[in-house]
Design goal:
The complex is a heterodimer.
Chain A: E1 2-6, H1 7-18, E2 32-38, E3 41-47, E4 51-57, E5 60-63, E6 65-70, H2 71-80, E7 85-90, E8 95-100, E9 103-108, E10 125-130, H3 131-141, E11 156-162, E12 165-171, E13 175-182, E14 191-196, H4 197-206, E15 212-217, E16 221-226, E17 229-234, E18 253-258, H5 259-270, E19 280-285, E20 288-295, E21 299-306, E22 314-318, H6 320-328, E23 334-339, E24 346-349, E25 354-358, E26 361-362
Antiparallel strand pairs in A: 1-5, 1-7, 2-3, 2-6, 3-4, 4-17, 7-8, 8-9, 10-15, 11-12, 11-14, 12-13, 13-25, 15-16, 16-17, 18-23, 19-20, 19-22, 20-21, 23-24, 24-25
Helix pairs in contact in A: 1-2, 5-6
Chain B: E1 7-12, H1 15-23, E2 32-35, E3 43-46, H2 48-51, H3 61-67, E4 72-74, H4 78-93, E5 99-103, E6 106-110, H5 118-133, E7 137-142, H6 145-152, E8 160-162, H7 168-173, H8 185-193, H9 199-203, H10 207-214, H11 216-224, E9 241-252, H12 255-275, E10 283-292, E11 297-303, H13 309-320, E12 328-337, E13 345-346
Parallel strand pairs in B: 2-4, 7-8
Antiparallel strand pairs in B: 1-6, 1-7, 2-3, 5-6, 9-12, 10-11, 10-12
Helix pairs in contact in B: 4-5, 10-11, 12-13
The chains are: A alpha+beta, B alpha+beta.
Chain lengths: ~375, ~350
Amino acid sequence: MKFQIERDAFQNALNQVQHVVASRSPLPILSNVLIEASEGGLELSTTDLDVTVSKIVAANVVQPGAITLPARRLAGIVRELPASDVEFDVSADSVATLQSGASIFKILGLPPFDFPHVGEFRNPREFTIDQKLLRDALRKTSYAISTDETRYVLNGVNCVIRDGMLTLVATDGRRLAMVEQDLEFPAGQEVSVIIPTKAVNELQRQLDIKGDVKVVISDNQASFDLNGSVLVTKLIEGNYPNFRQVIPGPANYRVIVEREVLLGTLRRMNLLVDESTNSVNFIFDNNQLTICTTSPEIGEAEETIDIRYTGPRMVMAFNPEFVIAPLRNLDQDEVYIDLIDTSSPGVIKIDEPFLYVMMPMRATR
Amino acid sequence: MDGGRKILHIDMDCFYAAIEIREHPELAGLPVAVGGSSGRGVLTTCNYEARKYGCRSAMPTFKALRLCPKLILLPVRFDLYRQESARVREIFLRYTQCIEPVSLDEAYLDISSLQSEASAVAWLIREQIRTETGLTASAGIAPNKFLAKIASDWNKPDGQFEIRSGEEVDFLTELEVKKINGVGKRTAERLREVGIRTCGDLRKWSEIDLARCFGKFGLELYQLCRGIDLSPVQPNRERKSFSSERTFRTDLVTLEEGLDELDDIVIELAEDLAASRHCDREISACSVKIKFDDFRSTTAQRSGSQIDPEMMRELLAEAWIRGEGRSVRLLGASVHFRTKRGVPEQLEMF
C-alpha cells in the first residue's frame, strides 16, 4: 500500500473521525483508525463498536491496500509534519512509513482484518433531509437527553416518522424537548428509533449548514451519509415512553419574554443556587417576572424583568438549569412560556414547531 | 496500608429497648421489646433478657411472642430515640467532626487526627455516654470501618475491642465469612458450597476466581478477608432509596415464581427498612427491578407513601412482560424517600 496526500486534507479527515476513538479501550484495534487506499482515494474509519465514522479523502494512490494505525498518535504526527505533502508507505508486516520533508516516521500498526465491520442493514428504510434542519433539530433537543444510565431508553434522541412528519424528542423525565418537521416518507411506513447520545453528539459535529443527509434506518442500526463522511450507529433497543401524554393540554396563561434577557437573569441567579436544592422561584405578576433564590448557607439573589403577562400572580419553582438549557439553544428573540397552574408543567414555545416541557419543583412540607 | 487510620465503630446496646427501660425502671431485668404489635409487625429491637428466649430484631412480633410469651412489647417512640441519638452525637462531636451515622444507634468515627490512644478515646466516649444518658455502648477500634464493625461486636454489650494494625490477618483467619457485612444467608450458603467458611479459607482463593464466582463482590471479598477496607468515613450521607434484591441460582421462568419470591423480598425490605436509620423517612415511591437472563434490567415504579405488597406485585407484573418471555435472574424491590423537609422536590413526568 502506497499513497501521497496533502497534509492539511489528511489532518482534517483524521480530526473528523478521531472523536469516536475511546482513549482507553479493552481492544487495542479500537484505538486505531482503519485506512483503506483504493483508486477512488482514501477511506478512514474509526469505531467504538456502537458508533462507526468513515470519511473519504482524495489522495494519489500508487498501490491500494489497508492498515490500521493508532488514531490519536497518527493525528498528532500529521499535525506536526514539516512539509505540506505526506508520502505513505506500508510494508507487509503492518509498519507504516510516513515521509514529509526531511522527517521520517515509522509507526507500528495492526492488520486491517481484525477491524470490526458494520453489520448489514436488515429491513432498511431511507429518507433524505436537509443537513441544517437536522442539525438545528438536534441542537434544540439533545440537551434534554438523560444521563442516568439506569434509564437506558432515555439515553438518546427518539426519532419518530409518521404521517409525513419527523419528530425528535429527548427527555430525562423532568423536562422534555421536542421538534417536529415535515418530511417526505413513503406513506403507511412508520419509524420509531432511539439514537444514542454518542451518535447524536457525533452527528452534531459532522452536520453542515448546507447540503442533504441521506438517512438509512434498519431495525437495529442507522446510517447518516453526508458530505463524503458516513456515520453508522447502533440504535438503543427498547420502548421510548409515550411522551405525548406528558405534553400538557391547552394553557391558561401565556408569558411572552425576551429570550436573552431571561437567560442573562437566570445565569446570574444560578450563581447563588444551592446544589442540593437546585431551585429558583419564578414570580409572574402584572407584566413582571421576579426570579429569586435563597440558600441558607450561601445567600440570596433577586432580579425583576419586564414580560408580557396579565394573568394572576403565580409563584413557581424550577431548576434553573432546566430553563437555561433551551434558552441557550434557541435563536428567537422572543419565547413564550405557557402555564396552566403552579403545580402543572410549564411549556416553552416559539413560533416554530418546537416545545419544551419542564416540570416544576414542589416545596415539601 | 490504611495510612494509619484510627476508626471507631460505636454501637449502642439494644438502644431503643435500653431507652424504654431507662424511662420505665420497673421493667429492668424483664424481657422487653420495641416494635409493631399489628399482624405484620416486627420487633425493632429487644433487650438481652428477650434475646435469651431467641427473640431478635426484625423478627415478626407474633413469632417473638411465641418464643417468649412474657415479652413486654412497647410501641416505637422514634422522637424520643432521635433525641437520645442526638445527645450521643453531641458527645462524638467533642472528639471529631468526621462522623458517619449508620442508624440512630450506630456510627463510625474517624479519629485519626487525635494524638490520644484510640482505645482510650473509645473508653472516654462510652463513659460519657453512660454518665450523660444512662445508656451503654460498645466500641470497636481498628484501622478501618470493616474491622471496627466486627470489633464492636466482640465484647458486646458494654465492652470494647481493638484490632491493631498488623494484627488484621491473624484476627480474621478464624472469623466466619458470614460476619462480613454484605455476606447474607445466600452468599454464605454459596461460599460454604465451595468450601469457604472462614476468612482464612477465603484467602486461599485468587482474586480472579473470586470474581468469576461472586462477581464484583468477589473482588471486595478478596480485600476484606485480608483486612483491607479503604472506604472512608463519610459524614452527611443522604440516602435516596432503600432496596432489597435477590439473585437466583436458577433463573425464574414464570411470573408466579416471580411473585412468590417478590413477596419474600418485600417482607425483607420492610424489615430491613424498619431496622435502619431510615425507618422514619417519608416514602415517595416504590419500585420493582428485574434483571433478565441477557443481563438487561428494567424497573417499574409508582408513587406511594408506604410499602404496599399488592402494588409491588402489580409493578412486577408490569415489568415482567418487558422481558418478552426471557427468564429472570434477579429481582429487587425498593422504596424511594422524599427529599429532606423544606427542600423543594423536582417533580417527574414518568
